[in-house]
Specification:
By secondary structure, the chain is an alpha/beta fold. Helices cover 33% and strands 17% of the residues. The protein is built from 18 helices and 19 strands. Strand 8, helix 6 and strand 9 form a beta-alpha-beta unit.
């Protein structure tokens, strides 16, 4: 007899089924119902699955406990909406305290229906602490972002079945009661696998393509970790992609932002096959893309930053790199090629306007030896990330919460801990004034140097590539918050700083800056802390960013830029968006 029903066309259900198969889970105890129809009908004709029926959900959960305890393998239980899922709780409690891998898949019409007196709509948004190691929601899929979210969440629940000794997990899955079961071949879903330090054998490193190590914000590397990473890179001809918060200063450090940020040119080295991801949140806005990512972290969490996570290694970073590295490797080909490319790009860099980026370019090689650099988020961090720091200098930035508040205080706190070490901070005016109370703290020592870049607003919102750029000067009213804090007063910060005992310096152009920068960066501890206030203009900041991201520009782009500049002179900022749209046609 011809088969009438295949897989549902509900993509979220397809993803869960595909991932159950990818993770080797094939035992299912199904209870009757309508809301779980798309899941149950989809698997009942798939020979991979073994299915048992249980009318009583309370019994079904205990059946799964017995089966999981007997086989040592995960067992799925599936039920409809209404109170059916409530009857799983006793059995899932048993599973929790016995660490039995029982996966409860409950079905729902959606959380948006909760609380509106709709029949059979049970609220499962908050479950008891001791019935699941992990509880996730799998919504309907409307686009690729939804698809990626469902994949990660489903993997998260499935992997929890064996994490830290194992236990039950919960998937709350949306449905629209589709009656379309015509999908004959189950579409693939990306499985994520977790490995631990206890695994005897780890997967092999793929040899088909480039390998990079990407480091987000990270504590300064220990000697052991640096050695392990360097040996790994020497073994696989890999490089370590860093920004100034990465904490790695080994042999294979590459700051590739200047190359990856180019808008009119794409490097052949800007793509890798495998990315080893360590560290936390990164402020690196321009990075190498990769086909697959392996995440290494002791927390074992699924951090799918780039949308291509395939494996998670729940172990110390030293353990991972030491287990994969070999002693006979000595590769530097990729490192040499990428480093040469960065240097060639720097040679082509134009004379930039007076700006945060220009100051970074001219200060980076003058930074006092062994000082610590603290950067404000976004504009300052991005500006300095274009330039590699001299040997021995580490940098910090509040990229955890990624807000403008607290950067100056964080630097001051670090300076209190090491009064004989020099600390240099680079902050925009909104970040500085937001946190200016700490400037007057009585514990501030003579090891502090503050560079305040005062453009009278949040210039990030006025940069040419920002979503709010089309607003022009209109953005200054509320988006960029222009006009606060003295509106670029040349007296306000000067009086404040000098009254607090700081040595105050200022500059409004390149010549004035060059006259004071050597004093500001003097390598010796001075009698007082220093504050250098630099006044820049909105257009200069935006133009500097645009120029550094378009170092390699073809003739067509040069013509477009000339048109844009002319339009700006004639029409002002508000006319630029019109010209941009016209040039795209």
């Amino acid at each position: 007899m011809e088969q009438k029903f295949y897989y549902t066309n509900e993509r979220n259900v397809q993803i869960v089924i595909a991932l159950l198969k990818a993770h080797g889970i094939n035992r299912v105890i199904a209870s009757p119902g309508t809301t779980n129809m798309t899941f149950v009908v989809s698997i009942e004709n798939d020979p991979w699955f073994q299915i048992w029926s249980s009318v009583d959900e309370r019994s079904a959960a205990y059946l799964a406990c017995g089966m999981a305890a007997e086989t040592g393998e995960p067992v799925v239980i599936s039920c409809t909406g209404a109170t059916a899922s409530r009857n799983y709780m006793p059995g899932l409690t048993e599973a929790y305290y016995r660490k039995l891998p029982v996966l409860a898949i409950t079905s729902t019409r959606g959380n948006h229906k909760i609380g509106h007196l709709i029949d059979q709509q049970i609220d499962r948004r908050n479950i008891p602490n001791d019935i699941a190691m992990e509880s996730v929601t799998i919504p309907m899929v409307k686009d690729k972002e939804d698809e990626r979210f469902c994949e990660v969440e489903a993997n998260k629940a499935i992997l929890a079945l064996k994490l830290n000794g194992g236990g039950p997990a919960h998937i709350n899955m949306y449905t629209k009661y589709s009656q379309d079961f015509s999908v004959k071949e189950l579409p693939k879903a990306n499985a994520i696998f977790r490995h631990t330090v206890f695994d005897d054998k780890l997967p092999e490193i793929p040899h088909d393509g480039r390998i990079v190590v990407f480091v987000g914000a990270h504590a300064d590397f220990s000697e052991r970790l640096t050695t392990a990473v360097d040996r790994f890179c020497a073994t696989y001809d890999a490089v370590v992609l860093c920004d100034h918060t990465s904490g790695y200063r080994g042999k294979y450090e590459v700051h590739y932002q200047l190359v990856c940020g180019q808008k009119q040119w794409h490097s052949e080295y800007a793509h890798a096959n495998l990315c080893i991801h360590i560290g936390e949140v990164s402020g690196n806005q321009f990075n190498v893309s990769a086909a697959h990512t392996w995440r290494v972290s002791p927390d074992g969490k699924l951090r799918d930053t780039s949308g291509n996570l395939r494996r998670v290694f729940m172990m110390p970073e030293e353990e991972f790199f030491e287990r994969y590295a070999k002693t006979d490797g000595n590769h530097t080909e990729l490192f040499n090629a990428m480093t040469a490319e960065v240097e060639a790009m720097k040679e082509k860099m134009p004379e930039l306007p007076f700006s945060n980026i220009w100051m970074a370019q001219h200060m980076v090689d003058k930074l006092p030896k062994d000082c610590e650099l603290h950067l404000g988020i976004y504009h300052s961090l991005r500006s300095w990330n274009f330039f590699k720091l001299p040997e021995g200098i580490h940098a910090k930035c509040n990229v955890g919460g990624f807000g403008i508040d607290g950067g100056v205080s964080t630097m001051m706190g670090a300076s209190f801990a090491h009064p004989n070490k020099l600390f240099v901070g680079i902050f925009g005016d909104l970040a500085f004034f937001y946190d200016m109370n700490v400037v007057g703290n009585r514990h501030v020592g003579n090891n502090v140097r503050l560079l305040l870049i005062n453009n009278g607003k949040g210039n990030e919102f006025r940069n040419y590539n920002h979503p709010c750029y089309f607003l022009g000067e209109e953005a200054d009213r509320y988006i960029a918050a222009a006009g606060h804090y003295g509106n670029k007063s040349h007296r306000l910060v000067k009086d404040y700083a000098t009254d607090l005992g700081y040595e105050y310096l200022s500059a409004s152009n390149k010549d004035e800056f060059n006259m004071v920068v050597d004093r500001f960066l003097t390598p010796n501890l001075t009698e007082k802390p220093m504050l250098l206030e630099v006044f820049t203009e909105t257009d200069d900041e935006s133009d500097a960013l645009e120029q550094i991201l378009n170092i390699l520009v073809d003739s067509k782009q040069k013509i477009k830029r000339a048109i844009k500049n002319t339009a700006k002179e004639i029409l002002g900022d508000n006319g630029i968006s019109f010209i941009k749209k016209a040039m795209k046609r």
